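Morning run. Coffee first, then this:
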Amino acid sequence: MENKHIIINVGRQLGSGGHDIARMLALDFNAKYYDKEILNLAAKESGFSEKIFEQNDEKKGFIRGLFSMTTPHVSGAYESGFSQENLFKFQSDAIRKAAQKSSCVFVGRCADYVLRDFENVVNIFITASMHDRVQQILNKQNVTPPEAKRMILQAEGKRASYYNYYTGKKWGHAESYDLCVNTSILGMVETEKMIAEFIRKKFDL
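And here it is:
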């Protein structure tokens, strides 16, 4: 079953458990897991510092961000014509190369769009109630509930802007994915099991 080459792309709301579910899916399907790991691959692909990719991860307006930075690797990138489109291209190339080699689970970074022409691809979106997402943030960071909610809304605004700009689709809208799931209903473990069963049926595994 796990020998079939499959690609699982996971979009996620902040605090929804999307990262954990993606890791579980990678284990279930003997697939490589790529979240921030793709930034390292993109850095190697481009020859630029990984810090550039980290500081602008899933953000629009990379060019504007460069003007506030004075570190040598950033100014060098600017002088060589580096732009947000270059950043996206390097990252996309890294995603495609990884997907060609083995089964993969990608978290975010428009991987569903980048790999739209690949076979055996499934696109999942993970959501949860705002209450549960706020609790997830509170469990990890020393902030107040209003601060946690503000963090979520700001982060998701940036993700949506990035995704919508590059894909021409709507981040988080059901028509952009094969399956959208609310982890608040079944919890992360049972939600992952349900998604895994959906994938097995989709690909006749």
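The CA atoms of residues 113 and 168 lie 9 Å apart. Good start to the day.
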